[in-house]
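Suppose you are handed a protein chain with no further information: no name, no annotation, nothing but its sequence. What can you learn? This example shows the usual starting point.
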Amino acid sequence: MDLAAELAAYGPEAQSRAISPVEARAYCRRLASSHYENFTVVSWLFPRRLHQHLANVYAYCRWADDLADETANLGPPPSAGMPQRAFPTARDESLRLLDWWERQLDAMFAGEARHPVFVALAETVREFDLRRQPLADLLVAFRRDQTQTQYETLGELLTYCEKSASPVGRIVLCLGRALNNENVYKSDLICTGLQLANFWQDVRRDYERGRIYIPQEACRARGWDEARFAAGRCDDDFRELLWPLIQFAEMQLFLGQSLVKDLPRELKLPVRAFIAGGQAILAAIRRQRYDVWSRRPTVGRLTKLRLLAQAWWSP
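A reasonable first move is to predict its three-dimensional structure. Written in structure tokens, the prediction is:
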């Protein structure tokens, strides 16, 4: 998403005209299909009647994610003689824009949506009685990314997953009209496992972005300090560091997978596919002997097709 262009058209300082529901729905579909290469595949797993609603939710998340991570490229650099304080830091600008985004969220729930994302999302909220909490929780996580780049313990990291991953599963349950306490508990386990799998897959990428999700107490136990992260070489200490974290993520997926049997038929295939995808990423890390530094572990196209076929034919 070209954040600067989108903010010029629809941001807090924009003088945008009122958007019709038809235009808003088209905007969300366009944003989803053009800015997330897997959206078409993912949406295909769900019934067609949910595709627009998934696009609406995705557009909300896409905007929030970019407001959190893409503000460093906004605005011109300060000119000679211009006080640096005249230009907000990327973090300050992200926090300001995330506050604005939450005000738009509140306006939608008050029946006053004007931004195209919220005009479309309001229809999803009305049809499925989608509550404010999971949408707002995602913003809590995006704000936390601006102020915290490391986590002392695994337990502390899990409090981040509660806001950044679990709300997505709860929204999907709501769209499938399968929201209840037992399903939420298992969905949270799955979403946590998926996010952890992504963290362990992207150790190098996250470090290059200034973030370390491997708990610091585990790093100290294996002598992995900042210098060894900077060197970015896999050794036996790193393998011993990552091994129990991979096991924990696998356990989360295993404990949550019984959710599938309690879901309506239209949610069984996507949830099975998501679980299989997370397990495949963790297996890829194991095949590389935990070396996530020299090459990012990925799941090949044939493996994806096989996993999808298995998910389709599973009872």
